[in-house]
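Sample log: LexA family transcriptional regulator.
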Amino acid sequence: MGNPNRDQEYLGKLQDYYADYRSIPSYAVIGDMLGMASKSAVSALIKRLTLAGYVEMTPDKRLAPTKRFFERELADFPIPAGMPAAANDAMSESLTIDEYLIPKPSNTIMVRVKGDSMIDAGIHDGDIAIVEKRHAASVGDIVVAVVDNEYTLKELGRDRQGYMLLPHNADYAPIRPQEGLEIFGIMVGLVRKYR
């Protein structure tokens, strides 16, 4: 890219715009937004971003984001939740939240969690569960199940009496199906927004 630091800053502004409006603005709006007086400067930036793989031109001549446009930097160091570690600004890798959480997009849905029956498993009211739709599950999986014609999110358990659904909150009892138990899918990820 021309000036890598400036281009990353410009890319960040385009990403913020996209987050607000779900589109990449026209060249004129990009120029105004980034303080570029000439159309050729905007054109050169778009060419650099295209060559770097962040945007592409659609058949109807509109700018569109590529998969790389949605990548976010991943620190090359883990963050200890205990004692502080030495600071290091190095970023070594990028990934998209989508590719990290959703292994099979065509077979994955997001489900908003309601209630506190799974709170001791770290699954809170209002969280978004990432669920891979499938009918088979193993004991110990967190599943979305249809039990007696109602959906629920619980851990799949089994004992001598058969399969049951286990809450992770002492205020709730295990659920033993009366009429039937069908696995809708398995939780493969969890999203929580703090603000």
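Observation: The mean pLDDT is 88.
Observation: Residues 4-21 form the longest helix (18 residues).
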